[in-house]
Write a structure and sequence with these properties.
Two copies of one chain form a homodimer. The first copy, chain A, is mainly α. Chain A has ten helices and no strands. In chain A, helix 4 runs antiparallel to helix 6 and helix 5 packs parallel to helix 9. The longest helix of chain A is centred in the first third of the chain and has 21 residues. The radius of gyration of chain A is 22 Å and the shape is globular. Chains A, B: Keywords: DNA-binding, Transcription, Transcription regulation.
Chain lengths: ~180, ~180
């Protein structure tokens, strides 16, 4: 599958160079696909716990990561209750932005995403439930708030995008401004 | 650091159980932090290429991942030019949503994010530049489009959020609807 390593002849002609690049790209894709090295036995050995304990309690690495991530990702954000949906959302968005700009949280989020679907889902933690609570309260006041899905896509979408996919996580002030996108005044 | 493995006494009392959970959580965090196993020598060995070639051409794993990801993540999306910013953005958003709902692309995105900052940044590929081209064209027509940053946060933010952090990537139809959030009519 890989390019033969012993066939150099002189100073790497174009075709040989392109072959190497293709081989390297293929190797990266293969290695990434295999990167399932965080197994329950590996965690058990590191933690000094019997693997059966982990299997009994968590069942899979995904479940375990979800547990770690949930307990880590939702500790810092409280559900505000100011009496105004806009103010609640502004405060909540600013808190989430502050939380995910912490390098430790960011590292854990990236690792959880890298560990696959259940790890990635764990990054939402209880945040959509917190949003649901804010939006329900507005509905009880007689308002017509957006859906939880729309609020999550716009607010968490933008905050996570900035934190994970760019080099500049958003500031709390910027996060507050996102609420204007969700609820144009 | 880890809980001693030889001190069980009977059927795991509460304190012992909580200790185990803490030890497991700590182990996961440590292992995730150390997960830098995709190195240039590892890739070189898999690809059948001399490591020096990789160091010379890419410099770091981050640069290499960025190269792989960029060539993979931006192949399928063309920059539409319908004469209308709204229609251009709808078509572009639908194409991006289709692209990232491909399980192979999603796997590569997750792995790139897991590999750290430069891998994550590579997931944007040329997409912000494509957005900039659409928005510049609107400006040349005399319109007042949103900034690239705002358009990326809202459109890519929501599309990536659905694809990566939920179990249900967005449909092209849903992605088209996001343009209404960015450009309320």
């Amino acid at each position: 599958m890989s390019a033969p390593a012993g066939t150099q002849q002189g100073t790497r002609p174009g075709g040989r160079s392109a072959q190497k690049r293709a081989a390297v790209h293929r190797a990266v894709a293969e290695l990434l696909a295999e990167q399932a090295d965080l197994t329950l036995p590996v965690v058990a050995a590191r933690a000094g716990v019997h693997p059966t304990t982990l299997y009994r309690r968590w069942g899979s690495v995904g479940d375990l990561l979800a547990d770690v991530a949930t307990s880590r990702f939702t500790g810092e954000v409280v559900v505000p209750d100011t009496g105004s949906l806009r103010a609640d959302l502004e405060r909540w968005a600013a808190d989430v932005a502050t939380d995910v700009s912490d390098p430790d949280v960011l590292m854990l989020m990236r690792a959880a995403v890298g560990a696959g679907e259940s790890g990635a889902c764990a990054c939402r933690g209880d945040r959509e439930e917190q949003l649901a609570a804010l939006l329900d309260r507005e509905r009880a006041r007689g308002g017509r708030p957006p859906t939880v899905a729309r609020a999550a896509e716009v607010l968490l979408g933008a905050i996570y995008y900035r934190a994970i996919f760019t080099e500049t996580p958003g500031t709390p002030e910027w996060a507050r401004g996102l609420v204007e996108v969700l609820l144009p005044s």
